[in-house]
Amino acid sequence: MVVAVSTPWSQPSKLPQMNFGKLPSGIFGIGALVLLALIVLFSTYFTIDQGERGVVLHYGAVAGEAEPGLHFKLPFVTSIEKISVQIQKEAFEKTSEGDTRLQAYSRDQQPATIAMAVNYHVTDASAVYSQFGSLTNMKSRIINSRAYEQLKNVFGQFDAADAIQKRALLNAEVFAAIRGSVQGPVTVDSVQIEDITFSSQYEGAVEARMQAIVKQQQAEADKQKRIIDADASAYEVKAAADAKAHQIEVQGQAEASAIKARGDALRENPGLPTLVAAEKWNGVLPTTMVPGNALPFLNLK
């Protein structure tokens, strides 16, 4: 006899029926909320690097200025415009991307192409944004226009030759003019005139003039050398003549002294000539004599 035992496990299982078609909308809703929370979280702070200033805007209106460091702000209300306060360089030069060199005329109407660099820095970031909207706009409206204008004014006061020979003075006057004319939330730190190029005709004329000056200087140097050589030769002749005259003078003085000494000796010793002759006589009498003359050294009277 078989007894059938009924157990919970022997009954067909009744699992809950899952409706997977409704799950995605709930998950996406939670994800959207999380994403929105992250966006709000990350929009509550900002950082300003060293060398920058942050212009704080509330709905686009300037509300303040932020120094370097970490700052907090109102999400969706506050925005930040970063303005560099480091030294900027605006170069007017010829590069592979283009030629921005400046054109000007000298006082003697010589056209020149000038490469120049202007270094400047922002002193009021809020004013830069409120007046110009950006650093690029400020540079275009203040730095570039004033630099070109003042360069033409100052360069026109120099002749072409002076602009080359007095480059330091030209650079100093251009710097002073540009710095004085730039008014606003920026300061010009320095100006460097890096190159001045004149027309090929003018440069050819300058080269020809320089060659003529060099030839003239060489001719003058040759003339001076000839004069120096002639003076040296004349000096040598004069020196030789002076030496000869001195020699003759010394010899004459010696001979005069000798003659004077002999004269003094004869006056003091009248018989000295006879003695000298006797000392030199070899003792042989002459073989011929003039009638009436006495024998040498013999006084027969």
How does this model look, in words?
This protein is α+β, with helices and mostly antiparallel strands and 301 residues long. Among the domains are: 30-84, no CATH class; 88-198, Tetrahydropterin Synthase, Chain A (2-Layer Sandwich), CATH 3.30.479.30; 200-239. The protein is built from 7 helices and 11 strands. It has helices spanning 23-42, 125-132, 135-155, 160-165, 167-181, 200-268, 272-280, and strands at residues 45-48, 52-58, 61-66, 69-72, 78-84, 88-92, 94-95, 98-99, 102-105, 111-122, 186-198. The strands form 4 sheets. Strands 6, 9, 10 and 11 form a 4-stranded antiparallel sheet that branches. It has a 3-stranded antiparallel sheet with strand order 3-2-5, covered by helices on one side. Strand 2 (52-58) and strand 3 form a beta hairpin. Helix 2 crosses helix 3 and helix 3 (135-155) crosses helix 5 (167-181). The protein starts with 22 loop residues before the first helix and ends in a 21-residue tail after the last helix.
